[in-house]
Amino acid sequence: MSDVRLASPRGKWILLTTILGSSMALLDSTVVNVALPRIGRDLDADLAALQWTVNAYMLTLAGLILLGGSLGDRYGRRKVFVVGVVWFAAASLLCGLAPNAEVLIAARALQGVGGALLTPGSLALIQASFHADDRGRAVGLWSGFGGVGAAVGPFVGGWLVDGPGWRWVFLLNVPLALVCVPVALRHVPESGDGRAHTRFDVLGAVLAAVALALITYALIEARAATVAVALTAVAGLVAAVAFVYVEKRRDDPMMPPDIFASRQFTAVNLVTLCVYAALGGFFFLAALQLQVVVGYSALGAGVALLPTTVLMLLLSARSGELGERIGPRVPLTVGPLLAAAGMLLMLRVGPGASYVRDVLPALLVLGLGLVTLVAPLTATVLGSVSTARAGLASGINNAAARAAGLIAVAALPLLTGMGEEAYRSAPAFDEAFGRAMAMCAGVLVVGAVVAFVTVRRPPEDCRRPECRTHGSVLAPPLEGDRARKRLA
């Protein structure tokens, strides 16, 4: 059913449902960073536990998001979306009630599973439900309001942490789900793809998640320098090789290797890895730096980081138009360089730093860099493959960005020499933060060089992005398949 008009009551209910669902996942991927110091203090958690609090969610989300889209096509997009919302809310409740760091980390991993079901499902429901004349506007409203959620998230998260407590960052998802699920069941039409009859690539999804989990564990625990950690690292690499082998031999792989035959697609994904590794590391450490070293409250840190997201909301659509006129090479080169400059400006943010003089300029330059690169990056991903594979290409690019952030959060504390208790010591954390910003800037420069050398203008008749307004700083916008074929 794809004849619902946006102006109709049903169209408005569908839009509300999908926005609520996707906002739940988006909020928890951004607001948790602000709550980390309080979580560490209340649960007596070391730095490794805080890394896992972020990474457990990203791990399952990145590893399963492609599979989540396929499940919706096979069993019904509304059904899988509702299951994802309920799953996410139940995991959020467990997060909010967690008595210790171990339970919190396990619950965060479960949250990621729910996010992998509802995130692609929310977009798929819009594209399957709305009339073709209204679909583009509906997707624009969905991505725009999602961006507003991303902007409001750190503010709300900081207010909750300083007020009723960090547990309410997670518990807030429960009433949202109680609104979302009944509306979805009553007003959203069911849809699916009758051609989605091939087997799911469950083995590929499991191998991808296992490889990421083992490599992440090895990086986080590498300070111990034990034989067990070394063996875990080797096992992670073996799982990654096995994933590539399985994908090459399957008839219906989750990540078809032949899609990387496109030089442009491979190049823009390398740029994506560089950009979102740096961003993942930055936003994990910046929230801690502002609270541990500068002395901000959780609310103050959340509000302080808002300019980057606000700039993306205001200017991302115009950046996309500019990229279409001049081609993606310049934006994908200049954008990472601007973002790198913003991170180097963060070297001035230390004890006694002024927000107006030190913090705000860094975030504005970083934000301008993201505005410059994100929309052209998405357009280049879609333009580097055939139209029939645009949804798949976007899903792979989105998963790559999340995996890059995951690895960065695991690796940066190790590479910068942060000890297990570093976030409890302002001088120690400040010193390591400076090294981390220099490393993140270096990775962004590498991304800029790759873009300058390899990226070219896509064909004129290629697929154009539907998500023109974007506010997430941790992953590029997820584009669906207009033909409503399977993501994988």
TrEMBL record:
GO biological process, one term: response to antibiotic
Gene3D superfamilies to which the protein is assigned, alphabetical: MFS general substrate transporter like domains, Multidrug resistance protein D
Compartment(s) of residence: Cell membrane
Gene Ontology terms: cellular component: plasma membrane
This protein's record includes keyword Transport: yes
Keywords on record: Antibiotic resistance, Cell membrane, Membrane, Transmembrane, Transmembrane helix, Transport
UniProt topology in membrane: Multi-pass membrane protein
Name this polypeptide is given: Transmembrane efflux protein
InterPro entries associated with the record: EmrB-like (IPR004638), MFS (IPR011701), MFS_dom (IPR020846), MFS_trans_sf (IPR036259)
GO molecular function: transmembrane transporter activity
Record's keyword annotation contains Cell membrane: yes
CDD domains the record matches: MFS_MMR_MDR_like
Listed PROSITE patterns: MFS
TM segment ranges: none
Predominant location category: membrane
Cited Pfam families: MFS_1 (PF07690)
